[in-house]
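Q: I have 289 residues here and want to know how they pack in 3D. Can you give me a structure?
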Amino acid sequence: MTDAVETDQWLEQLASVGYCIIPDLLPKSTLGNLEADLESDFQQTPFGHGDFYGYRTKRFGSLLRRSRFAAELVREPTIMALAETILKPACERIQLNVAQAIEIHPGEIEQFPHCDQDMWPGDKGGQQYLLNVMWPLSRFTKVNGATRLYPGTHKQSVESLEQLPDPMVAECRPGSAICFLGSTIHGAGANRSGDVRRAVVIGYSLGWLKPYENLWLAYPPHIAKNFEPELAELAGYTQHKPNLGNYEGQCPSTLLHDTVPAFPRATDALRADQQAAVREFADAQRFTS
């Protein structure tokens, strides 16, 4: 059960400075088990290519199919409460935006400071588009590339790097959750140590946005049918009312059933207010025809 008072504390920090660090939110063993499952993937994944992703950094996604422990991070109750409180005022349901592992090697330079909601063009207004959670797999320190967060930038219009305040370096240990808004400027630090820095980033976004990670390719039906229903919904197997993200006019969760109809029946998936308005109009047309 999520502690409402504690959740309010983290919400206040997110609203005030754009981030919070929740200590010891999951057992260190959970992160250790996840890292063990991902060890082979870390070894086989090549370094990135590009000044943003980094030439001394490895990244790979689709974590829900790589380790059963990834679901514990994605559905952690306090995190889910934060994500829904922040995002649901602007959507009917939230979705998984990314589940990605990151390994920063010695010699990597500092990442360009950025805010992740810039993935989506246009004026954002006052609504948040995204909540990210960085879960360290190794201890985060100032010298090994710990995430750098720029306080207050979620409330600012920053046009040049010279306008940025001094960053807060998110030093913490595995089990802690580094939460930050999609509007908060941040970036990985330089790794000046002799060891790799590993982490997993889990992101949640408005359910009507195109997600960073192509969920249906990351988790095709034969994979997602093994998920718990709530996890499958986060991974894209649901509709966002009205009728958004449907498959042949039905909820895409139909693809997770043992039998999928060859010719599905298109069925309304409307918000309650829309359903009432449409029904009233349709009844009037039937009465007059």
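Q: Anything worth noting?
A: Residues 84 and 119 are 20 Å apart (CA to CA). The two ends are 54 Å apart (CA to CA).
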